[in-house]
Amino acid sequence: MKKYIIPTLIAFLTLSGCKDFDEINVDPLSPNANQVEPQYFLNNSILGAQQDPNIAERVFVLYWKTAARQHLTTGIAGAADNDAWSVEYWKYLSEWLNNANAAIEIANSRKEAGNSQPHYDNLIQVSRIWRAYLMSEFSDNFGPQPIQAFQGINPEFNSEKDVYYFILNELKDATAKMNLNQPIPAESISKYDMAYKMNWTKWVKYGNSMRMRIAMRLSEVDPSKAKAEFEAAANSNMFISTSDDNFTIAEKTGWDALTGVMSREWNAQLLSATLNNMYIGLGGINSTDQLSADKHSAVKAGDYIGVKYDEQFTTLTNDPSAGYWLDGLPNKIDPRAYKTFYIPGDFSNSIYSYYPSYTNDATTNSGVLTFSNNSTDTISTVNTWNAFAIGNWGVKGQRNGLRGLIGRAPALGKQYRESASSRIFFASWESYFLIAEAALKGWATPMNDEAAYNKGIQDNFTYNGVSQFYGQYIVSNDYNRDGTSVAYGHTAEPGATHIMKYKDPANNNLVSVTINYPVNTIYKNGAFKNDKLTKIITQKYLANMPWLPLESWNDHRRLGLPFFENPAIETPLINLPSITTGNYMTNSIKNFPQRLRYPSSFRNSDPNGYQKAVQLLGTEDAVLTPLWWAKH
Questions:
Q1: Within 13 Å of residue 257, how many CA atoms lie on the same side as its CB?
Q2: Spatial CA neighbour of 454 closest among 531, 530, 543, 528
Q3: Residue 621 pLDDT more than 50?
């Protein structure tokens, strides 16, 4: 990658110097610099970044959602990236950046040539704000990148610190230069802004919310810079604060950039153990208050953990639910769970997805467990709720006909699968959770941490259609499986363990068992499970499910929150050699992916640039190499 600048842009700008040619020699069907409108390039950039099925499956689903533990897949969560996918992503991301830069360059060129339009000045600022997002996406994934590439010259790679400082300055300057008195252009022009239709005020709000997001990205490594930038953006009171301000793009069916990012039928997107341990018990809302009467008999007692199957379920992980099969539904659960994932066999549920449509998996609601004596047991999965740790299950996995199969475990609802929703790039709840974290740090903010925390939950409950439970939810002291409660003022830590009951499948007797609350050793050395920051990030994680997996991955890399269980290690994990059968109960940043490696296309086409980029990383170009702002 020697340049980001597109050849067509150079051609357009070159044509602007040919004014002396006789008009008779100008092909009226051939574009020139006076005919190419900058908003076309902004539109192409925003459109492309929605990710067509080719790249969405690889990046949004298999990279971001997997790294963020939003579903059951090991992949990048087991530190295994895919160079072919990264090559494609690099190509796509470069094109999106090219187009954003072209919008700026063409608008400036037209102005200098005396061919400006009233909306050009603001369009330049909009394009800068959007380009800042794309640059953050680049560095959040890979690390160092070339800032000057976006100024029309050959790139020299810059450090991550320089990149994020540049992004913050761009957001600050672009929002300040936006003329809010400039009328919104006619629909024939504004339609090329797929996000806000050239509503300048909304773009300023997005720019300030992005500035808050990026400032918080630096909170652990550069707190003084983070504080100053955050306070300036938040106290402008011009940030995304309502759903009307959300940055969203409507999806549609087909096979193009607007096709749903989670729409590939063969991606199971089953409930993850990480999510499940957060969901169960959180908020104290009874399942019987959420589900139709025909499912009430399937709801289990609050102290029941499930059937213990020693030969088919791994326990070599610090997943607090490991080793058990819940032969029913949880007693209490976060109300967003049943709105996001469908219950196996619940065919009357409006969110039940029959993907993949070319198999009968979604309607096959049973699985076979095989025992060491070669006997088998067929287990019904109708009205059950289970999630499984990622990793290597060895022989136990081979004996388990329930794990990893659609129809046997909760899976993502069809509202996210059928290209009928709007992809969210930034929502009001994220603004409030950012403000809550900032206020907790003692930074100057427009509202206190508890008010912002509750408002973030409220906005996301509204989005998920569960507002009726909000009042009960925010005062709940009930712990989830991770030992975290909802009520902001309830910071009492749970005990190290709690007593539950399991069913012995040999005789169906109930047996008492001591269950550990997990110790998150990469956050404050495991001393806290229920402090205020854990609450904030837990709620932010749940609210950002499923639209913002990259932000959830970013928070985990930055803070070690929320708790991610270690991958199971029945047999060695090739890409995670630090996890052993002797330390699987202890978390380490070496157990979780930190970035994507630079693609081979970059290494081969620009070896000098590649060496500079790796030098700026400070160590090897590896998935487990932490970024500058992340925990080390």
A1: 12
A2: 543
A3: yes
Within 10 angstroms of residue 255's Cβ, the number of other Cβ atoms is: 10
Q: How many C-beta atoms surround the C-beta of residue 265 within 10 A? A: 15
Contact 257, 250 (CB under 8 A): no
Query: What number of residues does the chain have?
Result: 632
Nearest to residue 546, comparing CAs of 205, 214, 274, 216?
274
Do 593 and 575 form a contact (C-beta atoms < 8 A)?
Answer: no
Is the pLDDT at 25 greater than 90? The verdict is: no
Angle at 573 between CA 577 and CA 558, to 5 degrees: 65
Cα 127 to its chain centre, rounded Å, is 23
pLDDT tens per residue, range 492-520: 999 999 999 999 999 999 999 999 999 99
Contacts of 574-583 with C-beta under 8 Å, sequence gap 24+, read 575/78, 575/79, 575/80, 575/623, 576/78, 576/79, 581/316
CB atoms within 10 A of CB 43: 17
Max alpha carbon distance in the chain (Å)?
95
Q: What's the CA gap between 279 and 203, in Å, rounded?
A: 34
> Angle 532-543/549-559 helices, nearest 10 degrees?
160
Q: What is the pLDDT of residue 157?
A: 96
For strands 497-503 and 510-516, give the pairing. antiparallel
Residue 361, phi then psi, degrees to nearest 5 = -55, -45
Structure tokens at 440: 């907790």
CA distance 392 to 390: 7
Angle between the N-to-C axes of helices 200-217 and 428-440, in degrees from 0 to 180, rounded to the nearest 10? 40
pLDDT at 36: 87
Calculate the average pLDDT of the chain. 94
The answer to whether residue 32 scores a pLDDT higher than 60 is no
For residue 148, the model assigns a pLDDT of 84
In one letter, which amino acid is 557? R
Mean pLDDT of 132-137: 98
Strand runs (DSSP E) across 360-445, as ranges?
366-370, 376-380, 391-392, 411-412, 422-426
Structure tokens at 113: 């040539």
The pLDDT, as a whole number, for residue 632 is 83
The residue assigned the tokens 């009357």 is: 348
- Tokens in use for 599? 């693609």
For the entire predicted model, the pTM comes to 0.95
Residue among 466, 473, 270 nearest 385 (CA): 270
Nearest in space to 453 (alpha carbons), one of 426, 479, 434, 476: 434
Chain position carrying tokens 């099969």: 325
Name the one residue in this structure whose structure tokens are 């094109």. 95
Q: Which residue has the tokens 């160092």?
A: 144
